[in-house]
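User: Hi! Is it possible to get a structure for several chains at once, not just one? Here's what I have:
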Amino acid sequence: MCPASKSKHIPRATIQRLAIYLQVLDALDNENVEVISSERLAAACDVNPSQIRKDLAYFGEFGVRGVGYNVPKLIQSIKESLGTDRIWRVALIGVGNLGRSLLRYQGFLKRGFQIVAAFDCDPFKIGDTVAGLEVMCPRRMKEHVRDLHIEIGIITTPAERAQRAANHLIEADIRCILNFAAARIQVPEHIYVEYVDFFHHMYALTFKYCIGEAQRAEKTPSS
Amino acid sequence: MCPASKSKHIPRATIQRLAIYLQVLDALDNENVEVISSERLAAACDVNPSQIRKDLAYFGEFGVRGVGYNVPKLIQSIKESLGTDRIWRVALIGVGNLGRSLLRYQGFLKRGFQIVAAFDCDPFKIGDTVAGLEVMCPRRMKEHVRDLHIEIGIITTPAERAQRAANHLIEADIRCILNFAAARIQVPEHIYVEYVDFFHHMYALTFKYCIGEAQRAEKTPSS
DNA sequence: CCGTGCTTGTTCACTATTTCACAACGTGTG
DNA sequence: CACACGTTGTGAAATAGTGAACAAGCACGG
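Assistant: Yes, the chains can be modeled jointly so their relative placement is included. Here is the combined structure:
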């Protein structure tokens, strides 16, 4: 499936950067840029050119020496490397505000994902239709996952119900979980979990700002 | 403001983990857990206990040897370290689907943030009221930022308009930008930017899954 | 068909981060 | 008051990731 990645260990940071390259490359492709050098791509992504070449080298040789990288080809290659050169079928659990927003969001398919089922344990929500999907009871999850070939579960419940949602997903043999709830969840070894919480980024901002200002104050010991 | 951080450089990864600790500690606090050891906290956060102790040591000595950490006190200490022991005033630019969701989201204040202004350049949206805030024209941003003491800007425009939104924010002397748009933005040196894109996490998931399955296949060279 | 110019892929030294291991030190008990 | 216990804070070792430098190799021009 994924082209082997040369059986070397690949840093997590590399994967995050690949996602960034993809974003920038998509923009370039829309502007019909055909070829780009690691140097110019690096400038756009705000990283070191060597870094880009090394990141890509984990997966193969995608460039042409003396020329650079063909943009559409590189996009395809990165997608293959990340495993998103196909559509992944996704279930969402927790049809609250956030859940509904995601269900209505049009951008999934373009990025290789398709939400094909929605679950919520609130009996008043079960049976409702959101963005063309009927909200279903989590107790029936296992059979739906099997029938619909679902591989990824997105948790958008309140924090206190995240673990229960995760248990439903695990029970239904889902191996990949994206957790938007503001809570850590416990899962067995063989399940992959990623956490999405934009407050983490907020904190990173306020922290960098504080540090930055403190250093400024040091350099300018005014008043 | 922030307690000095002992003037040592602090890894970015540490900041991300502090945000995680905070999340778990909040949950513990709600369960009225008073004291926790680095070992048990580490288990809940899925990191190494030494890691936690070292992360905290960057900012001070918060624990009691032989006992552990007082949960409420540690929460407070981490908040101070991150610079979120006060309310940050935030502006949002781009009142689309995502923007509206964020404006309506109730959880900001609890985490130390307050959205006090919303901007959109669509003349049909200007003047509308969303979650009690009047949508305003970005051209008037500078004065609003000054009058409302805004320090952080959140970009929720479509990707192609992210740079323009960023320019407005920079022009209005905002130093911290949280960018939800799927595009990189160019900013001067002294501006802090953080990117939020849950597809990055999606890709991390699919990638880990592919690698994991490949390794499985290796160990079990079946058929 | 060879040489020049340019950019990749890759090595290596360096820097940053994580983990280990243990000394330091409160707490509670006899 | 002294001792045993338990957990922190921290220096040192191991591991991981980054950036500079350069050899390799394609494209184009003469």
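Chain B touches chain A through 66 residues (CB under 8 Å). Strands of chain B lie at 35-36, 69-70, 88-93, 113-119, 129-130, 133-136, 152-155, 176-179, 192-195.

User: Great, thank you!
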